[in-house]
Amino acid sequence: MNGAESLVRTLVRGGVDVCFTNPGTSEMHFVAALDKVDGMNCLLCLFEGVVTGAADGYARMAGKPASTLLHLGPGLGNAVANLHNARKADTPMINIVGEHATYHIEHDAPLTADIEGIARPVSHWVKTSRDSRTVAADAAEAIATASAPPGQIATLILPANTAWEDSDGPAEVPAIPRRATIADDAIIAAARVLRSGEPTVLMLAGQALYEGTLNLAGCIAAKTGAGLISQGANARLQRGAGRVAVNRIPFSVDQALEVLAPYRNIILVGAKPPVAFFAYPGKPSRLEAEGCRIHRLCELGEDAEDALARLAEAVGAKPGDAQVQQAFRPDLPKGALTAETIAAVLGNVLPEGAIIADESVSVGRGFFPMTAGTPPHDWLNNMGGSIGLGMPLATGAAVACPDRKVICLEGDGSGMYTLQALWTQARANLDVTTVVLANRSYAILRGELTRVGAENPGRKALDMLDLSRPNLDWVQMANGMGVEAVRVDDCEGFYKAMVAGLAVKGPYLVEVVM
Amino acid sequence: MNGAESLVRTLVRGGVDVCFTNPGTSEMHFVAALDKVDGMNCLLCLFEGVVTGAADGYARMAGKPASTLLHLGPGLGNAVANLHNARKADTPMINIVGEHATYHIEHDAPLTADIEGIARPVSHWVKTSRDSRTVAADAAEAIATASAPPGQIATLILPANTAWEDSDGPAEVPAIPRRATIADDAIIAAARVLRSGEPTVLMLAGQALYEGTLNLAGCIAAKTGAGLISQGANARLQRGAGRVAVNRIPFSVDQALEVLAPYRNIILVGAKPPVAFFAYPGKPSRLEAEGCRIHRLCELGEDAEDALARLAEAVGAKPGDAQVQQAFRPDLPKGALTAETIAAVLGNVLPEGAIIADESVSVGRGFFPMTAGTPPHDWLNNMGGSIGLGMPLATGAAVACPDRKVICLEGDGSGMYTLQALWTQARANLDVTTVVLANRSYAILRGELTRVGAENPGRKALDMLDLSRPNLDWVQMANGMGVEAVRVDDCEGFYKAMVAGLAVKGPYLVEVVM
Lengths: 514, 514
Fold this sequence. Notes:
2 copies of one chain form a homodimer.
Chain A (H helix, E strand, L loop, with lengths): L2 H11 L4 E4 L6 H9 L4 E4 L3 H15 L3 E5 L1 H17 L4 E7 L15 H5 L5 E4 L6 H13 L5 E7 H5 L19 H12 L4 E5 L6 H14 L2 E4 L6 E3 L7 E2 L4 H8 L4 E5 L23 E6 L5 H12 L23 H11 L5 E5 L7 H5 L5 E5 L8 H11 L5 E6 H4 L5 H7 L4 E7 L4 H9 L7 H5 L10 H7 L3 E5 L2 H13 L4 E6 L1
Parallel strand pairs in A: 1-2, 1-3, 3-4, 4-6, 5-6, 7-8, 7-11, 8-10, 11-12, 13-14, 13-15, 15-16, 16-18, 17-18
Antiparallel strand pairs in A: 9-14
Helix pairs in contact in A: 1-2, 1-6, 3-4, 3-14, 8-11, 9-11, 12-20
C-alpha cells in the first residue's frame, strides 16, 4: 500500500469520509487511491474557493471535518479566502495539499512555491509529510487537531513521492479531546452579575446557538431579565418557531452602539467582545457602552451547554421558562422587490428544516424579523467577511444534509467570486435553491464610501462599485453550468419562483432583480 | 491632501497609470482619490484573480507595472495564484492592499488577517505603511522595487487611517536601476564554448525573446551552428514571419530529454537550467543530457541585448546572418476539430500584431509549428503553471495595447477559474477574441494519472478529471457576462467564427467543442 492509500484509509477510519477536491498532477496518487478505498465521497469543484467553502458548510452541518484536496501552493492560494472564513467560524477542516516530490523542490519548477508560508496565515496546524511511512500518522494527527473543539484548520502537505512510495498502512486516530467543562468560579461570577439587577446581556456564539443550549440561555433570560444577543454573524444559528429567538448585533456601528447602550454587563458565552466590522473615522472599534463590564462564562471550545445548565440552576431558572418564538408567516407582499418585501416572501416560503446559507450582505441585514416565525431552520453566516462563501457553503451543507432543503441567499457581487459552485451542485444534484439578490452593485460600498467620509463621489469612483454595463445575467450563467434558473422582478414572480424552486429536488436559481 | 491622494498622485507621477481593482470598505479613500486625481485608468474586476492576472498581462505588454487594489488579507488571498504566476514570469507589479485602521487590528474583527504573511510567499517586497505621512514615500519605494529589472512584485499594505489622515503630498520616485551590463569574462567563456565545435544550444528567456535581441541570437546560431531553444513557457515571445524562430522545451519529460539529448553545452541567456514541470517516478528532474555543461551568459535582469551583441561580435557573427521564419499559412483543414486542425485554423487567421495569451494547456502543446509563419505577433505563456491566468492575462494585454488584437487560447478547465475576466472585457470593450478549447476534461490529468504510474483508474478517479455531467455551456456563460459568443464543432465553423470574432472590435468568445 502506498502513502496515498494509507492516507485515504486513515481519513476514512477517522470518520472523514467526504473530500471536496480540485486535484492536479501532484495529487494523482491520492486520486488513484480513491478508487481502491471504499467510503470516501469525493466531489469535484471547479475552483478551490468552492472546495474550502464547501468543506466549511459541510462541517458546520455534519459536526465533523471534511477533507479537501488542493493542488500545490497556488491551489491552496485560491482556497485562502474561504479558509480565512472557515477559520473565523472555527470550522474543523483537513486540507491535503499536494507538493512536488521532495527531491524536485530544489529545482524551482514553475509550480514550486512556499506552501507552508501560504498555509500558515489560515491554518492552526501545518505539516509537510517527509516520508511515505509517516503520511498515515500525519493524517491521524491532522484529524485530531482539526477536531479539537471548537474546530481547527489542519493543513497537511503531501510531497508526491510520499504518496507514491510504500507505507505501513493506515494509522489509528487518537481520541478527540472533549469540550472542557468550566470551573465553578465562572458560574458563580456570572450568576452574581445576573442577580445584581444591572442591565445584562448574554452574548452567545458557537454551540450556544444550537437549539437545546439556546433554550437554556432563554430560561436564564426569562428568569433574570437578561437580554440575549449574538455576534453580527454566526456559524450556525438554530432558529424559527418554537425556538428561543436571538438577534444579531447590527453591522452599522451606530445601530450596534444603540442596541448595546442599555447594558452594564455583557456575559460572553463562547463569543468575543463586540467589535465593529470596520473602523470609521471618529467611531469606536469596540461596541459596548462606556463602563460596560465584559465577563466570560466560557470559551468557544468549552462546554457551553453544561455551563448554561449550571448557570440556569444557579439563578433558579427552570426548564420551560424560556420564551420561544411564536409561529407566523408575514403577509404576502405585492409589487416591487425591496429588502423588506424580499424578506416577507422568504418568511412565506422557508420550509421546515431549511438550511439558510446567508451571504445576502447589504440587502439581507433585515431578513431576521420577517423570517423569525417560520418553521425551525438553521441559519449560517459568513464569519470572516470575505465574500464568495455563500454558494460554496450551501454546496457543502447540502452534501452534509441530503434530506434537507438548502437556501442560499447570495449577493450578486459576492456570488461572482465563486459562481463555479453551481456546477458542483448540478453534478451532484444537490438540493439547493439559490436566490441571487441582483442590485447590480457592491451596494454595501456605496454606503461605506459615505461612511468613511469620502464626499460626493464622482463617476470614476462610483464605477468601481457598480456591477452594471453590462448587467450580469444570472439565468444564463446558471444554465451554462447546468442549473435551472429564472429571473423575477416583482414579489408575485419571486414567490412563484421560490415555490417552483423549492419543489425541485436539486439545484435551482432565482435571480431577483431589485 | 490625505494619504490616499498622496499615494495615487505618487503612482501617476511614477508612470503607474493603470489600476486593476476590486475594492472594499477599507479601500474607499483610495477609490475616492481616483476621482480627484487625473491620469489613473481604473478597471474593475469581479474577482481578485482577474485583478492580478490582468496586471501581469498589462506589464508584459506595456513594459512597466500596473497597480492593483485589493481588499484586505482575503482579497489578497484570492489574488495569490496569479501573483504566483506573475512572480514566476518576473513581472513588475504594485499591489495596494487595504488593511484595517492601525488601532482596529488588535480587536480581531472578522476580516482581520495576517496580510504580510499572505503577501510574503508571492512578493519580493512587502511593507505596511505606518503613517499617512509616509504613504507617498512607501509608494515611491514600491514603484522603484517593482521596476527593478527584470521585474518584481511589490506589495504595499495600507491601513485605512493612513489613507484618510493628512499627508505631505506626493513623493518623488527614485530612478529605476538600469539593466546591468555583464563582464567580459562571460562573453569570452561563451564564445569559447561556441567555437569548441561541441553541440551547443542557447537557451533564451525574458528580454532575449524580443525581436531585436532574438535576432542577435539568431546571428550567433547561424554563424556557430548552435541551436536556439526557450523554456517550456515564456513571458513574451516575439515570433512569426520574418523573425527568428525558437521552439520551447516540451512539457513531456521524455520529449524534453530527446530534444536536449544532442547538446553537450547549454548557454543560459536569462534562462534557468532546464527542469521538468513535475517529478515522475523513475524520471529525472533535470532535463539536460548527462555530462552536458551549463554555462550562464547573463541573468534575467541583466542586459541580454548588449550581451548577445558582444557575443555575436566575439564569434564573428554579422547582422543579417540570422535565419528568419518564412511567411506561410497552412492549408485550411476540414472536418473534425483536433489539436492539429485547431492549430491549422489558427495558422490561417492570426492577424499581424496579434497578442496571444496562451493557456491552452494540453491541447495547445503543438500550436507552434502551424502558427510559425503567420505575421509577427507576441505569444504569452503561463510561467507559473497555476491555471486561471489566460483570460485575465488577455484582459491586461488588451488594456496595454488597445490597437492590437488579443487572442486568448484557453482550456475549459482553466478558464473556469477566472471566467469573471469576461465581464471586465465587456465593460471596457477590450479587443479580445477568446477561444475556449472545450475538451470537457482536465485532459492533462488523464495523461498524468498514467504517467505517475497510477494504473487502470476507475470511474471514481476519472470523475475527478472530467468536466462533463453537466457540460459547461460557454456561450451562455459568456453571454451572461455581456460577451458575444458562438459554439463550433468543426473546422469550417471554427474558421468562420474566428473570422467573425476578429472582425469585431471588442470581446468575442468561440467555444471549440472537441
